[in-house]
Specification:
By secondary structure, the protein is an all-alpha fold. It contains six helices and no strands. The protein has two domains: 1-31; 43-136, no CATH class. Helix 2 (43-53) runs parallel beside helix 4 (74-88), helix 3 runs antiparallel to helix 4 (74-88) and helix 3 (59-68) packs antiparallel against helix 5 (100-116). The radius of gyration is 25 Å and the shape is globular. Residues 16-20 and 130-149 have low confidence and may be disordered.
Length: 149
């Protein structure tokens, strides 16, 4: 009788797991697929847009690639600099894994690069100033010591 009860529980548990798996499958089919693009909520779609931009010749995508050099995501930064290198033949000393202050210096060189070519950067110039004002300039400040104020 004990075996019959345990066997019945296993069957019920198996059915329960099956229902959960089928339910997850149905729910995943209901989730809308993210749209591709530089601003997509899906990281893979953003990376796709960055890679695709390496084959484009328009100014807008070039600006978007330079914007991605300031991304928090190192993969986005890496793909962006490689796409820029493919398009322009330049890296301007940008290292996606470098210190923040070095990346900022190289990003500024890219902004200068765009400006020298007459490419409109007004869309992200304000964002760049905000990020520097918010302390993302890479400047290190000494930490307060105990008892020092």
């Amino acid at each position: 009788m004990v075996h019959a009860q345990l066997g019945g529980r296993r069957v019920l548990m198996g059915i329960g797991y099956g229902v959960v798996i089928v339910g997850l499958g149905l729910v995943s089919g209901c989730i809308p697929e993210s749209k591709p693009g530089f601003d997509s909520p899906a990281p893979s779609k953003r990376l796709d847009a960055i890679v695709d931009a390496s084959g484009l010749e328009d100014d807008e995508s070039l600006v978007k690639l330079v914007e991605k050099l300031r991304s928090y995501d190192p993969a986005e930064r890496m793909f962006a600099i490689r796409s820029l290198q493919i398009r322009t033949g330049e890296t301007l000393g940008y290292d996606h894994a470098g210190h923040d202050w070095k990346r900022l210096e190289a990003f500024t060189r890219w902004v200068d690069y765009l400006e020298e070519r007459g490419i409109d950067i007004s869309g992200f110039a304000a964002d760049m100033a905000d990020s520097v004002d918010d302390g993302e300039s890479g400047e290190e400040t000494p930490m307060d010591q105990d008892g020092d104020e």
